[in-house]
Amino acid sequence: MGRVFDDATEADAFVHAVARDWRSAPLSRTDMALCHFAAKLTHHQQRMSHSDLEVLRGHGVDDRAIHDAVQVVGMFNHLTRVADALGVEPEDFVRPWGEE
What we know:
The protein is mostly helical and 100 residues long.
């Protein structure tokens, strides 16, 4: 089961911590392993190996969840590359994380 929060403020603080820097956010070991996997797939996809899958399996992540994670990471990587290639400008009305 996933993390349960007492209120929306606590949940917001968690989301902001992850968005700010997932490496120092209060993630579970499994979620941290998934983030490391996603970062490697994003930045060093040519270095991915079977051992990366075994790390996730060692944290109890099943093959379906691994497949879903790869699909989500791949889709976001695709979308950001398309946006970068076409010169899509950031939307001014969207405030950076943590700004009121």
